[in-house]
């Protein structure tokens, strides 16, 4: 008799989205987070929440230039703060120091 091998049961992970969070984002005011990875000497950007025309919440990403946030966001918006910060880190890649 051969032992039966069962694949582990995969289940969808449930993340708490009642509070927006990313370890490299520090909330500076309501709906605005300053993004600074631990390896960076200065902030790399700002994420601001906003409402779309259909009422859904989205997150816009702004680059950090000469000590303040750019006035024009990147073209993309993101569904969560975590996604926005992760995208910003990917977008800047090797420029983060």
Account of the protein in words:
Helices cover 12% and strands 30% of the residues. With 97 residues, it is of the alpha+beta class. It is globular, with a radius of gyration of 18 Å. The mean pLDDT is 83. β4 and β5 (68-69) form a beta hairpin. The chain starts with 24 loop residues before the first strand and ends in a 5-residue tail after the last helix. Strands 1, 2, 3, 4, 5 and 6 form a 6-stranded antiparallel β-sheet that branches.
Quick structural summary:
The protein is 12% helix and 30% strand.
Radius of gyration of CA atoms, rounded to a whole number: 18 Å
Mean pLDDT: 83
Structural class: alpha+beta
Uncertain stretches:
none
Helix content: 10-25%
Which outline best applies?
A: globular
**Biggest sheet details:** 6 strands, antiparallel
Count of alpha and pi helical runs:
1
